[in-house]
Every structure is written in structure tokens, then in C-alpha cells.
């Protein structure tokens, strides 16, 4: 009878030691899955948003508006020199709102937006905190931080054509047209 009682005690002792470790491993795997899910969702949001902004810049409209190609030639010659700070601030707000909607564990620390008429770049710095404060303190108290960045070129053949026509008309109407053409031919020959 002693052998049976001892084996029951050993099984209980093993279960008490192994169950918390298995539970912790399963909890850690769930946490890693949620963290990976956050990362994938945020990267998708950033890429889609950068593409939307590239299209908006191409069409000369604000983000989320439908483009109007009928007024594309009314942009002016200095369209490419316009300041895009208003669009940049708007894009930053939209990016923050969309990322906050999809994230489960992470918090947005910083969003950087760089806009030009040729490129859209969005970067986000995200921190992920452990759910239990004691575990986070054990691992040094600092969150896991990662940075995602998306860069999309703005393909705008209509803008190139419009700029070329404006430049060509300016050269055709200028007084030194023949001299300019001759200089261009000389450069081309070299």
C-alpha cells in the first residue's frame, strides 16, 4: 500500500510543477501570435494608406476624395513645388486612427510621414507591452519596440506630360528659342 500512496504523491508533485510551466508556454505562444497579428495588420494598413495617398497625389486631390481628371491641366506650372505639409498632417492623423483600430497589444509611439510629388513614405514606431506588470518588470521593464516603414513611388505620367507641354510651349514662345534648340543639339551631339 505504501507504493501506491507514494506514486499518487509523485504524480501530484509532477503535475504541480509541470502544469504552470505548460500554462506559461501556452500563454507565451498566444501572446506572440497576437503580437505577430498586430505587426501584420499595421503593416497592411500602412501599405494601403501609402498607396491611397500616392493615388491622391497623382490625381491632385485630398486623401479619400475621388479624383477629377478634367481639371488636371489647371494645376499650374509650379504644382510640383507646392508645400505638402497639410496633406502630410492629414495622412498622419488618418494613419494613427486606422492603426489604433486594428492593434490588439501595441501602442503607437511615433508616426513619421514624408510626402513629395514623387514618393510617399510612412514610418511607425510601435511598442508592445506585456499584459502582466510583474513579468514586464522581470524582463527589464522596457517594452518590445519595433519600427515599420512603407515607401511607395507616385507614378504620374499625366503630370510629366503636362509639365513637358508647359515647358515646350514656354520654349516655343520665347525669343531665344533657336539659340536654345541649337545648344540642346550641341549637348546631344557630345
What does this 3D model show about the protein?
The protein is of the alpha+beta class. Helices cover 59% and strands 16% of the residues. α1 packs antiparallel against α2. The longest helix is centred in the first third of the chain and has 58 residues, at 2-59. The protein is rod-shaped, with a radius of gyration of 30 Å.
Topology:
Elements: H1 2-59, H2 85-102, E1 106-115, E2 119-128, H3 133-138, E3 144-153, H4 157-173, H5 177-189
Helix pairs in contact: 1-2
Helix count equals 5
* Overall strand count: 3
Main β sheet profile: 3 strands, antiparallel
Residue share in β-strands: 15-25%
Uncertain residue segments:
65-70
Provide tags for this entry.
190 residues, alpha+beta, 2 domains, three-stranded antiparallel sheet
Quick gist of this model?
59% of the residues lie in helices and 16% in strands.
